[in-house]
Amino acid sequence: MKRLFVIGCVVVTVAMLAACSANENDEPNNPATADEQSEVPPADEEETETGNELESPIGSSDAAEIKEIPVTVEGETEMREAQFHRSAIGYSIYILQDFMLESEEPNRDVILSNYDDSFFTRVINHGSGADAQEIKQMITEHAEGEIVEGEDVPLADIEYTVKEEITNEDGVTMIVHTAKEYNGQLIGFTLFLPQKEAAEGISPAMWAMLDTIEW
User: Fold this and answer.
1) Looking at residue 41, what DSSP letter applies?
2) Running DSSP on this structure, what letter comes out for residue 198?
3) What are phi and psi of 29, to 5 degrees?
4) Which residues of 4-37 are buried (b: 16+ CB within 10 A; e: fewer)?
5) How many whole angstroms separate alpha carbon 42 and alpha carbon 49?
6) ∠ CA(158), CA(213), CA(117), 5° rounding?
7) Which residues of 87-97 are buried (b: 16+ CB within 10 A; e: fewer)?
């Protein structure tokens, strides 16, 4: 009888130890760490949100803006599509198809003809303290060709006009120097116009684009 009692006690003790072991295995190993992880957003989501902020364009819609501008060729005016650009110098301009605007160096841009890159216009920001007449005098003193002053150009409210005619092995090139003030900034334009047949269309297009400049 005593032997049966001892065996029963051993069986009960083993059962109780097995139940305790099962309860411990069901509990999480580190509940505090699990709670902290549930509160932290996934790393991928943080990177995606940050990436979206960096990729969001600012003012990109301006560069896509296209409108028609008037171009007068041999007395006939036609409307042509031009794309909006804002220069690092500070001005805005509409550039016609078959032309491109590039930054040449600090405070200088160049408008190039894709059809013939010997036709181009240099745009120079002389700044707010520049003297237009001093610049005109410097142009005439350093001119390499025949100078003609005061001729009309198709651009309103200009400060001066100096036309320079250069002849070399490539033929005759008319260089037109002029400048206009925009909100206190003196902007100079130098147009290089070889006297070729293409000048009949390219020259009016250059002036039409310059006429769209705003500050």
Assistant:
1) P
2) T
3) -65, -35
4) eeeeeeeeeeeeeeeeeeeeeeeeeeeeeeeeee
5) 11
6) 95
7) bebebebbbbe
The helix (H) or strand (E) run that includes residue 4 is helix 2-26
Q: How far is CA 206 from CA 11, 32, 95, 144, 189, in A?
A: 104, 72, 9, 23, 11
- Between CA 5 and CA 62 the distance in angstroms is 95
Q: In whole angstroms, what is the distance from residue 13 CA to residue 98 CA? A: 95
CA 186, CA 167: separation in Å to the nearest integer?
30
**Nearest-5° Cα angle at 178, 94 to 149:** 145
Q: Residue 187: CA atoms inside 13 Å, Cβ hemisphere, count?
A: 25
Tell me the residue type at 108. Answer: R
Spatial separation of the C-alpha atoms in residues 146 and 174, rounded to whole Å: 10
Note whether 171 and 194 are within 8 A (CB).
Answer: yes
Can you give the pLDDT of all 215 residues of the chain as single tens digits?
444 343 444 444 444 444 444 444 444 444 444 344 434 444 444 433 333 333 333 223 355 699 999 999 999 999 999 999 999 999 999 999 999 999 988 899 999 999 999 999 999 999 999 999 999 999 999 999 999 887 889 999 999 999 999 998 889 999 999 999 999 999 999 999 999 999 999 999 999 999 999 99
